[in-house]
Amino acid sequence: MGGGALRLGEEFHHGGSIGKGGCTQILRNDHGLPPAFGRPWDRLRIAETFSRFLASGAIEAEQLITAIVPAEEAAEAYRRIDRHPESVLKLVLGF
Question: In angstroms, rounded to a whole number, what is the distance separating the alpha carbons of residues 16 and 12?
């Protein structure tokens, strides 16, 4: 993604670059500003945007997957996630 990172988690939801209140400033209805025009960020829009980034090469999926585990080892994979969540970004079960 070039020189920066796409931070769809804490940066957006907890107030990084969108002002001191993050998206809570956008979602609050008591701020006195007219509602923003445009399409909301629903699940479909998020999936479409992610798919577009993936297809364009802006996001490399390999960096998102921590491990691919055979389905027979699912129980141990879930234990790993439970005991060491910091060690797993995305774990894929192979069937």
Answer: 6
